[in-house]
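note to self: dont lose this again. the chain is below, predicted strucutre after it. 114 aa total, dont forget to put it in the shared folder this time
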Amino acid sequence: MGLFSSKTDVQAFARELAGRVAKRYPPELDKQAGKRPSVNRLTRIMEDTCSAAVEFRDQHKLGWFGRARLGNAFKWELTELGYSTEFVDFATEAVVVHLSRKASAPAAPASGEH
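---
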């Protein structure tokens, strides 16, 4: 995958990822304190968002620059959709933290097992 197609892919995925968030938690609700989803629902939305980002990272073998580009593009997409700065920062941080983690290693056998 070339540098330019990678940039395009990352931008398109960031737009798609922000769109997924918007379907489950529209920006209009973010601005109305009484209409916000429960903490559990918001957690599920962000877990699904982060999982999708990690899957994209693994499929496209994003390095640190690609991960940074994805995080930044996701942040701008959320901002353009009209989310509050507080939510944009929260969601972006969650995605960036998950993208920065190493792929999970296979589980080690419990002690005593061979």
